[in-house]
Amino acid sequence: MVETRSPEASVTVGDLLADGTLSATAAVLPRGAERRPVFWVHATEQLDPRPHLRRHELVCTLGSSIVRPRAAHVFVDALDEAGVAGIALGLGEVHLEPPEELLEACRRRGMPLLLLEHGIPFLAVNDSVLRRRSQIESDARRRETSLLARLLTLARDGAGEEALLREVADALGGEVGRDEAGGALVWRADGEAPSTAFMDQLESLLEFSNVEQARELLELQQRLGQLIDLIIGGLAHPAALLPEIESQGLDPDRLRVSFWPAGSEGAIGRRWANGLIGTTSREVALITSPETDDSFSSLGLVCGYSTVVSLGSLRQAFSEARASLRLARSRGGVAGPDQLASLDALLEQQAPEQLAPFIEQLVDPIVRADEIGRGDLMATLSAFIAEDRQLQATAERLFVHVNTVRHRLARIAELSGRDPLTLTGISDLRVAVWAAERRLTVRHRMIKPLGR
């Protein structure tokens, strides 16, 4: 966080010259000297008061130490090296007019020289600095308060952090941004910084803005998700999404849908800033322009995507992407429509309870027969399927005679009621074997010790 603005730096030599209560005049005023900051006022009659001075102080003196030749040069040189704002010479006590040597020394060093009429106490100069400082701070507070009110209105109207900080920069003539860690606000400009109070309130306002934007984004994504569910269910037409699609700059004739796990909308939004995101009842839907298949792997999440479609075919694309996501969850990684056209892909999309009857009625009798020693029936069936129903290849795979394979397949037909030598029979048995193997795989994953 930046420090509070330095109030002293706000008062200038020009401010003192403009104060009618001082009636100060400028005997020497180098170009631009009226903008010199005045922090404090210091009175002294020492010839070399450097040990007691700070930068940007206005030195008030009656000039009692500069009556000797060359003394004024020593005095001015010392003050210039101390970095003071200027000299205020009180007339009437020691000098009725500024000594010529003092004028010469001030011109040589570019030192502002103010003249105070007799009777003006040096405390009046200090009071002028304090009064002007208070006025400047009061004006700054009013400007900051007005700016904060304007920022709050903008935030309520939906302005984000970037827009709010741009408004601050335009109003204050500087730049406010996050530090390198992306955390605290910092002031990046020369000159006076906003007050600490302003920066604290700005930080709170930005938090409010971010929360409001996040809430509005969540509501939008939920509303779009509900609309997508209605489209999938045939209760709404895809054209209902056209305003949102056009607002994102997407081409309604070339759209691609992808489905992602629930809770991934934040990562998706950062990756696809122009994408249209909807959170449905089960997952996150993303509508984008045509993306390369590889781009969906960039987040390291499971994902299912559709072919490229036009607006009117979005319902089909939603169903395709959702089916691809189910396949991706089963296999891991990313899946697309080209992977859906296979029996394995179809089976992987089925719920376990739908495949349970295949296991119970077709596989379990064969497994029980194997358990009582009836002869490697499951191994033979799996090999027969793997060898694409080739008897001789199956026999060679199992290191048995082909007649042994025939005998075992006949026994499988007897136990399961499905003949492996027919297309219908082997199709049913293949589904059953696939379901049984998948059940064993899932159970293995569930009981696998952590860390392995």
Automatic annotation (TrEMBL):
InterPro entries: CdaR-like_regulators, PucR_C-HTH_dom, PucR_C-HTH_sf, PucR_dom
Domain Purine catabolism PurC-like: 17-131
Domain PucR C-terminal helix-turn-helix, residue spans: 377-433
Gene3D superfamilies attached to this UniProt entry: PucR C-terminal helix-turn-helix domain
Domain of life of the organism encoding this protein: Bacteria
Annotated source species: Leucobacter chromiisoli
Pfam families listed in its UniProt record: HTH_30, PucR
Name of this chain's protein: PucR family transcriptional regulator ligand-binding domain-containing protein
